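Anyone opening a protein record will find just a pair of labelled lines. A complete record is shown below as an example.
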Amino acid sequence: MDIEFNKNEDQNKQLLFQLHKKLEAVKLGGGKSRIAKEHEKGKLTARERISYLTDEGSDFLEVGALAADGMYEEEGGCPSAGVVTGIGYVSGRMCMIVANDATVKAGAWFPMTAKKNLRAQEIAMENRLPIIYLVDSAGVFLPMQNEIFPDKEHFGRQFRNNAKMSSMGIIQVAAIMGSCVAGGAYLPIMSDEAMIVDKTGSIFLAGSYLVKAAIGETVDNETLGGATTHCEISGVTDNKYDSDQECLDAIRKIFDKIGDYEKAGFDRAEAKKPAKNMDELYGIFPSDRVKPYDMHDVISRLVDDSEFDEYKKDYGKTLLCGTARIDGWAIGIIANQRKIVKNKKGEMQMGGVIYSDSADKAARFIMNCNQRKIPLLFLQDVSGFMVGSKAEHGGIIKDGAKMVNAMANSVVPKFTIIVGNSYGAGNYAMCGKAYDPRLIYSWPTAQMAVMSGASAAKTLLQIKVASLKKSGKEISPEDEKQLLREITDKYNEELSPYYAAARLWVDGVIDPLETRKVISMGIEAANHAPITERFNVGVIQT
C-alpha cells in the first residue's frame, strides 16, 4: 500500500472514531441517571423496547439518530430529537418503529421531534410499511409551541398521516407505555390497535392539573386516564398489560399473524459480497475533498462480486452510469467520477463536475431504469454543473434540466449516498433531499452546501468588505484575514455532515461499510409498495 492510501485510511478512521463517539453519546439519551429513573419505574428505555421487540439477530436501520445534534443547547439539548425511529423486523415482518425517549425531557416534542416523526411516517407511507408507535411522551415542549403546533408540517400533520395511512391500508399498532397527553393522545387511538401498560401508561386530553384549572375537578391521573379506566370503562384502549415486556410480546403476536404484502417485483438474485476488499474503501477514498480518485474503485467495493455493467462508458465520463447488484438486488447506479477525464475531442473535463454530455447520458440511463423497473442509487461527490461561456453556449442548462426532469419524475425508488461533496445544483440533479429519495445517508466525509467552503468564504468576504467600505470604514489586511477566518469557520461548520443530519437533510451519517445494508434494506422496504404510476417526463428539453 502506498503512503497516500495509508494517510487516507488513518484520516477516515479518525472521522469514524468521531462518528462512533457521537452515536454512543446519542444512544444514552438523557443520560445514565435518567435511564436509571426509568428502570426504577419498571420501564424499559426506548432503545431497550426496540431491542426487545425486534427479532433477535436481525438488522435495525436507524433513521435520524443524529437529529437535533448540537441544537436546543439553551434548553439542555435534545439527543436524537427525543425519539428513536428506524426500520426493523418484528416476527419476520419489516416495519417502521417510532419510540419516544422519556429520558429526554420526558419525551416532550421539540420542533425537530415533529420533523423526525413525520419523516418516519413518510418512509412508512412511501414504502407501505406497517408502523409501530411506542408512545411515552409529555406532549409539546410548551416554550417552543409556536414552532411545533400550527403549521402544515408541524405536530398536527402526524394525525393527518394516521388517517391517510389507515385509508391506504397501512397497518398501524400503538402501545402506550408512559405518558400520552393532549393532541398526542390521538396518535395511538387513530391506530388500528392500541394497547396500554398498567400503572405506567396513561392517556388523556388534559392531565389532572389542567383539569383542576379548567373545570375545578380534582382527580388523579390514574383514575382520569390509566389502563383500567380506558380498557374497562371508556373502551379507548384495547388491552392492558402488566409490563413493557408483556405489551411488546403482544405486538409480536399481532405481527405474527399479518397476511403477506403485495410486492413491487424488483429483481433479486443470490447475494454475493464484493470480490474486492470493502475495507480498502478507507484507503482509496481521500478525506481531503479536493483530491481526485477513481469512482470505479469505490463502486467495485460496494457491489456484488465487484461487477458493474457500465452504460456509455466512453461518453460523458464525469458521470458513471451502470447496473449492478447490491446484496442480490438489481440497482442502477449514477455516480460522480472524481478524476480528471478526457473526451474524444481531447478536451479535459474536471472530476466531480456535470457536463452536457454526462447530463445527457444520465437522463437516458434514468429513463432506461424506469422502463426496466430497476431502483436507482445516486453516489454523490459533486461540485456542480460546468460553468463558463463554452458550457453555456453548449446548452448546459438544457441538458441539466433534462437530467433533473428524468430523475424527478422517476417512479422507481431512488436512494442517495453522499460520499463527498454535494454542492449547488449538483445536489439537486443527483437526487438531493428535495427529490424524494426513499433513503438518504452521508459518509463522514460528506459536505453539503451551495458551494465549497473556500469559494463561499471568499465571496462572503468580498461582500462584507464592500459593505464596510461603503459605510466609510477602512479595513487592514490583518483585519481582512481575521474576517476570512471567522467566515470560513462558520461556513465549514455548516458544511459538516452532522449539521445536515441534525436538521434531517440526511437520514444519518454512516460508516462506508454500512452502505450495502442501507441500500439492501431500502430496496426491500420499497418492494412493499407496487409501482402504480406510469413514468412520464412531460415536456423534456432536447
User: Anything to note?
Assistant: The first helix runs from residue 3 to 26. The mean pLDDT is 91. Residues 236 and 465 are 64 Å apart (CA to CA). DSSP finds 20 helices and 19 strands in the chain.
